[in-house]
Amino acid sequence: GLSGDLNAPVSNRVRKSLYPLVPYDQALASVIEHTPVLSPTKHNVSEALAGHILAEDVKALDPVPGYRASVVDGYAVISTDGPGVYPVAQVQYAGSNKESKATRLQPGTIARVTTGAMVPEGADAVVMVEDTELVESDSNGEEVQVRIIVSVRCKENIREIGQDAAVGELIIEKGSSVSAAGGEVGLMASVGVTEVMAYPHPIITILSTGNELVHFSTPAPLAPPFVRDTNLPSLSTAIKSTMPYCTIIAAPSVAKDTQDSLYTLLKSAIESTANVIITTGGVSMGEADMMKGVLEQRLGAQIWFGRVLMKPGKPTTFATVKDANGKTKLVFSLPGNPVSALVGYYVFVLPALRKMAGYASPHISSVLATLAHSIQLDSRPEFYRVRINAETKAGMPSTRFIAYGTGSQMSSRMLSMRGANALLKLPGASDKVKELKEGDVVEAYIIADF
Amino acid sequence: GLSGDLNAPVSNRVRKSLYPLVPYDQALASVIEHTPVLSPTKHNVSEALAGHILAEDVKALDPVPGYRASVVDGYAVISTDGPGVYPVAQVQYAGSNKESKATRLQPGTIARVTTGAMVPEGADAVVMVEDTELVESDSNGEEVQVRIIVSVRCKENIREIGQDAAVGELIIEKGSSVSAAGGEVGLMASVGVTEVMAYPHPIITILSTGNELVHFSTPAPLAPPFVRDTNLPSLSTAIKSTMPYCTIIAAPSVAKDTQDSLYTLLKSAIESTANVIITTGGVSMGEADMMKGVLEQRLGAQIWFGRVLMKPGKPTTFATVKDANGKTKLVFSLPGNPVSALVGYYVFVLPALRKMAGYASPHISSVLATLAHSIQLDSRPEFYRVRINAETKAGMPSTRFIAYGTGSQMSSRMLSMRGANALLKLPGASDKVKELKEGDVVEAYIIADF
Ligand code: NWS
Ligand code: NWS
């Protein structure tokens, strides 16, 4: 809330903001419009690829399985031989037939095989060990003759070469996400894909501003007029949970409320490897609006909006600026109030991060939630913090999301974020509608698991 | 699927499994029963605390705000003075009044203040700058007289000391989760809490077993009889996405299919710092069931179940074993089939990890999903991989989850995990019900975002 340089005269204070109040949807559209998609880069196939969007079609380089493999522990047979007593002519373990290359199974004989073992040529089915009996073993205890009790169909219990994935088969389409559930990583690895082109995840710098701020680990008691910088840890947490593969570079220090301090720290962030710079504080109403002024006048940034018709987050500012190499950097100047900064991350920054990382839809997931109680509407459209419970009751046709408010929604009150896992997108009050009622259904942006 | 030591005779092969087929719910209950909750430890308050469960009530050590703070940029006034022209008697910036301690505001004067600045004693409200006019400034351009246009109520635009959080106030209850959304971390930091007691997240070792296995980064073409170890990267991905603060220690190597190799690697995992050991492979039907045998006979582990009536994952085995210091280690011996291993992680290991980490409910989240198409039931209850879309249509009372199958559900077919974000919990087929129909509603375990 600092209105210009502390040492500058204030008589020329602007008493009304120069920035129009832009509706949220329009502001978000502007963010998305000016956010570049990052250029795909080569990535190793490993767990660190989770959550990335593939920039190429991925095809199987090797078949899975790579050989005719038994699905069970048992005996490889020639299915037309049928039940009966047979000599055990060979044994195949998974991975064991490197040296002793399997010889062709002759009619009237069987081969002992384990799950995953190579089925010898000639055999066309495998009988489970449970469906057999030992008839004779030698003096070393090795099986000599075994009774096959059941009939098996041709191909039964055998995985054919390439049955799970054939060579050249398109296994994951360009534009797909590598799921965090683990399937795609395992799938790519299984077919010999060790590297893929994928969209990188952005590098982010967080810069807190304010003369009053001290590091968040400063122990109590803290004497006035100091305030702990809580935006750094709360934004870091939000980034790590929503975009775990983004790199966060902490700014070297909090910016002081001087144009020079802001300029120096912003300039070095712009010239760093960061793709995105998140600042908090110093954007509220004032004669010089220091953050905006430094961005526009000293750094040559283009400010796309400087105020948004929303609560919290009215002074939220979004700019783009080119670094010395002509590379576009995004600057999100969020309000200093702790809740405003965090909400601003979810509703503006996260969609931009998703677009940069190649997501087809930049929008964060939302559900329709049912209000557990009435809510008084604010004059501004509001992102109202709630705890949503997924309630599944017998006889219900589907799971319902019931939304419980988190108390006073003041933008300094971090307690309103406690337990919150969603943001209701409430309209501003109108002459007709001043409150929403229990049971009303509202769109809710999901910000954490329930 | 290796049935005993490669060098041992097999005449004493057990042709029916010794382990009863246990229903899934009973098996899970047994896992939960034998899983200890880890002892709380001290944690720094930072983004690394996200997802942890607090083991103590957390109370505010400092009030927020720590001083009477202005909510806006404007002028601190004595509300009863009312509109009019007033001399600007002092200026207060956020963080600026360390040296120049604010002097009491006298009636008939006003103080210029910025958002977050300390409101001088005597003042009882703040007027926004937008609701004022400059009347006179001095030769340096500093404000001398300002017109207050509006009336303000007592306390308007002032945050009282402790209004957002009072000293000693219970801000987060014991047993609560530190949300990944960022609120709790910021909240604790704001009130001066720098350390808390919380449940640690378990340390996990992953041990793949099988003579056929080579490292997953082995480039194509891969000659038979080798298979890439894809369970290591897929399980690592799943752990990192569901429990990002668990530590994963990769086993020094894949275990060979010999009792000695298994024993050596398991023993060193048990005596390591790991709380949980996940093995894959070597648990299927056979005369000696090597993994189970080594666990029970050579390591003195207690096997709680060795087979589960489910698909995939029939041979899933769960054991506990004490290390040399008497500390209980959990051993999940999952089947080698890539899908079986991954599904086993979600339905057995993850609930155990959650219990160890202090979660009130160990169960992973589930929703009721509506089938997009009919599904043939297997004879065994099945965890059927699906992609769930949250579909929100105008006029619908709530979001519905529509489940689309991922094709053939063979447990070697990793493609069935591609795009999957949920596991349907299907019953086994009965004489009456052999398939579920489009539109039927089924419980679905969520394994990734939609
Ligand atoms: N006349 C006028 N005045 C106005 C507005 C207007 O329209 N007209 N708008 C409002 C709104 S409207 Mo809202 O979101 O819709 O509720 S934010 C908002 C606010 C934004 O002010 P800003 O300049 O961004 O931030 P400042 O630096 O002043 O800090 C703000 C607060 O947050 C604290 N703080 C800062 N950084 C941190 C940090 N890292 N950790 C912890 N706390 C921190 C800091 O101590 C201070 O108490 O100004 C108001 N003032
Ligand atoms: N007679 C009889 N036979 C039976 C059963 C029975 O009831 N009776 N049950 C079934 C079932 S029933 Mo199922 O989940 O309900 O579908 S698993 C299952 C299976 C489990 O066998 P297991 O001993 O655990 O595993 P093995 O080591 O044999 O490997 C299994 C496969 O997976 C591959 N593999 C291993 N590790 C890795 C890795 N790290 N990366 C990639 N692939 C890997 C490995 O190559 C092999 O193809 O045995 C079957 N055999």
Automatic annotation (TrEMBL), chains A, B:
What is the purpose of this protein? Catalyzes two steps in the biosynthesis of the molybdenum cofactor. In the first step, molybdopterin is adenylated. Subsequently, molybdate is inserted into adenylated molybdopterin and AMP is released.
Cofactor (UniProt): Mg(2+)
User: Which GO molecular-function terms appear in the entry?
Assistant: ATP binding; metal ion binding; molybdopterin adenylyltransferase activity; molybdopterin molybdotransferase activity
Q: In which pathway does it act?
A: Cofactor biosynthesis; molybdopterin biosynthesis
| Reactions performed catalytically | molybdopterin + ATP + H(+) = adenylyl-molybdopterin + diphosphate; adenylyl-molybdopterin + molybdate = Mo-molybdopterin + AMP + H(+)
Q: Which domain of life is it from?
A: Eukaryota
Q: Which residues of the full protein are shown?
A: 208 to 657 of 657
What name goes with this protein? MoaB/Mog domain-containing protein
Extract one GO cellular component term from the record.
cytosol
Coiled-coil residues are none
